[in-house]
Amino acid sequence: MDTQNCFHCGLNIVKAEEIIFDEKKFCCNGCKTVYEIFSLNDLTCYYDFEKSPGATPQDINGKYDFLDNENIVSKLLEFQENSTAIISLNIPHIHCSSCIWILENLQRLQKGISSSQVNFPEKKVRITYNPEEVSIKTIVYLLSSIGYEPYISLENYETGANNVDRSLTYKLGVAFFCFGNIMLLSFPEYFEVKEYWLDQYRGFFRWLIFALALPSFFYSASGYYVSAFKSMRSKMLNIDIPIALGIVVMFVRSTFDIVMDYGSGFFDSLTGLIFFMLLGKMFQIKTYSFLSFERDFKSYFPIAITKINSDSLEESVPIYEVEKGDRLLIRNQELIPVDGILISEKAEIDYSFVTGEAIPITKKSGDKVFAGGKQIGKVIEMEVLHSVSQSYLTQLWSNDVFQKNVVQKHKTITDSISRYFTPILLLIAFSGFGYWIFIDANIAFNVFTAVLIVACPCALALTAPFTFGNVLRILGKQKFYLKNALVIEQLAKVDTIVFDKTGTITTNKKSNISYEGDILSDEYLLLIKNVLRASNHPLSRMLYDYLPILILTNTSANDAKKWSVGAFEEITGKGMEAHIFGHQIQIGSAAFVEKTEENNLQQTSVHIKINGVYYGKFIFNNQYRDGLAALFNNLSSGYQVKVLSGDNEGERGTLEQLLPKGTELIFNQKPEQKLEFIKNLQDKGNNVMMVGDGLNDAGALAQSNVGISISENVNVFSPACDAILDANEFQKLNYFLKLSKNSITTIKMSFTLSLLYNVVGLAFAITGNLLPLVAAIIMPLSTITIVSFVTLMSSYYASKK
Amino acid sequence: MSVIYLLISISILIAIGFFVAFITAVKTGQYDDDYTPSVRMLFDDELLKSTKNENKVENNEEKELDI
Q1: Transmembrane: present as a keyword of the record (chain B) (predicted)?
Q2: In terms of C-beta density within 10 A (0-12 exposed, 13-18 middle, 19 or more buried), how is residue A780 classed?
Q3: I need a labelling partner for B5 at 20 to 30 A (CA). Which of A199, A269, A551, B14 fits?
Q4: pTM of the entire structure?
């Protein structure tokens, strides 16, 4: 059977559901509708840039009703005036040039939109529209109808003015401007041409250089003075002290030289040094603007929820205004924002954001439902027990871990070296001064300053940024996104790794389904598949995907697909019953098919009953990620490996078999207990890495030294963490850890190299021979060699699997 | 000989001009998104073609109104 792909979204088309429109094949009505909208508006160029770029629009009926509420809308807007309003919407689906094109042509789809601009790296679209002509709700509906559903969450509630910090770019710009011009003006001095006219203009050149050095010295380098001052106050000797010292001494001595007409000074080296160090800083900052590492529950929760008033009117209210005793209406695919009691008869709640468990849990009227779950299926009603901040899940965020702003949990490798470097440097400078002072006071002064200038740990300070910057990029390419460069150092120090179970070492993408019971004939299997197609229950969808497409020998496949399902009835929380081709088929829970389960095994299963005869059940097992066993085997040789799970012990046997011996397995852990567990390990002196996925791991991720969040779709959901790992790259975890260790080795090697340069430079300085030209050569030479050395080394380690 | 004062001053002034241009570019956010513009500039052709079509559509609508 040849597989056909949908013209719009590229998914496989099921023959029976194929829709042909305008000579193009579509997988569903949704995709066809989007194509219709585009072709009506002459926007079919959309399909020219990229093959099947679209997404199937989702049903959003009622989901955005809160956008009718003026107060909520005004909080979302960036700018608002009578006839102009600007809003930035986050659209996770943005992924290709077609997306950019269609989103920037919104004004042709909707009157009232004057322009729209896509920011691709941030996956955002900025829409300028006229609120008198079109409402924000209409725009959101339009976007959703073409498959670009925006993602609006509580996080957007207080957008405010988002100030981007561009000061580093300005500083770098200033530093480069000064450096470039000073280099140019210094050339005559380098060659010391004793020509008359150069001699005559020397003063002009020198004072010009001095003037050009001022912005670089006072503005670009200001960060180093501040940092040095702070570290002195906190009595921690960091690398910025010798740097700031070097810069200041260099500036003072050079100014002195020029004023007294002794020489040209070291302004070229000074500005060059500042420029290169800022460049290193810039290189180290690699931001993944489409990712967020600071997410808390706010990014998951909706802004507003439908409240049922006492006079049974529905009203959208902001989440924060929800109080105990309120009655809420939760629609299909909506998140439950607070703890409460279910009023409706049945609910299917998907807790995958919280636990990573993909299979929904059935709740009955009167059951407690917890915040963070997603309702699947019919509209439900619930009564609020706790307000948002006091709910079971959100309480986690009141823990200290989330309160204190941990600026520096540990010493960086550069700082720990500079703890020795700075005193030694000062010792050499003073002993050189002490030696020469008895011979010549003038030389003594020169030597003292020269030592501080040449020993300025420029190369040392560049080593770590360039290594980490490079490694950060290498890891990013392999879909392991780190929050910042410090995480690499932390990774290298890890000795204990704790994994969450559900959603982390298991995958919720595919389930491992097995069948138990009497053998089902091919015909029956086909019937079951047909019935399942009509159901939207996640288990049905999974089973539907799992069942093979069968070709019957007696009936042709073409006939088979025409079988229509008659008298289909789905009973929420139980199962479904259908009459098809003269057979009565019942699919559902054990209770539904009147089968008494012998043992109380904790497993998810779907039972089959055909024509009143019980056949058997499909069992949904946890599917562990590919390469899990191999990964754990590799890890267990160098690390303590533990598995922490919020589930019951049902899987203990399987896990013990799969994982190497000595892997500690702990079950029934609540979110706070997970956090405590990590804390206890740390108190024992371990450096803990936590690998988790759901919101219930958020506490543990924040507490651990390195928190890694596994994500099936990096664009959408991940709790606050230090690093985000694409779920498909999970088996590479060991390689990532090795690479981070190797990058530390690289840094250590490069430190030795840069210290060597310092020794050579010091040899010049201490003997009183440091000419501006020598300094001007040593400085860039050491910089270039160090930068190329660390880049090459880290790339070499990265290519070594 | 004093031409050197003039020349150097001019060169510095030009450099400052470029520097100011850079700062304003950063300030207005032109460096914030360095990917989308590279794609956007390839779209111009389609835009032109489509606007023509749009005009045609509008004409058609007008005709319909006439009837």
Answers
A1: yes
A2: middle
A3: A269
A4: 0.75
